Amino acid sequence: MTVLALLRRLLLALALVSPALAxxxxxxxxxxxxxxxxxxxxxxxxxxxxxxxxxxxxxxxxATLTDDLRLIDTVNRTVNRRVRQQTDVRTxxxxxxxxxxxxxxxxxxxxxxxxxxxxxxxxxAGVPPETLFLAVGYARRIGLHVVLVARTGSxxxxxxxxxxxxxxxxxxPYQWIGAQSGQDPSRWFGIARS
Length: 194
Description:
Elements: H1 3-17, H2 19-23, E1 33-37, H3 41-49, H4 69-82, E2 84-85, H5 88-92, E3 108-109, H6 111-124, E4 132-139, E5 143-152, E6 155-159, E7 167-168, E8 175-180, E9 188-191
Parallel strand pairs: 2-3
Antiparallel strand pairs: 1-9, 4-5, 4-8, 5-6, 6-7, 8-9
Helix pairs in contact: 4-6
């Protein structure tokens, strides 16, 4: 592990204890959205049949939490442990079906299903929906990959189905393709290169 990677992990750990400290550090930063892009086909199909999953309206209760990094980390880890990762073809007999992975013993899904499940559980726990958005990245080894991103006072943190903990968006091994707007989840944008 490089010194910079170790420093970033230390800062992220401190962010879980002190969001104000992490917010002041430039390593943890925010994704900048660029030009509008077309939303993924599976996302568009999901929104046509389940519009509540494509909204910033809280699904239950009211949005009272603003920066609970422990809650975000707990939900990320819990969903990653609980959901059995499985392709849509294997689960549903067809490709690119975006649907939340679920909470029961039979919870299963691929990357976008897991990201959707995390978003639902965080919103139900009180995290403001406009601080949660899906993002698509690419890695040669795995291809296209969908993650949930939480916009916190500490920067944008990735909740990835492939890793256990939260990570700053710049520290994940993906080339970013695009992300949802937090304010209008039906709109997708490219991610500015900096």
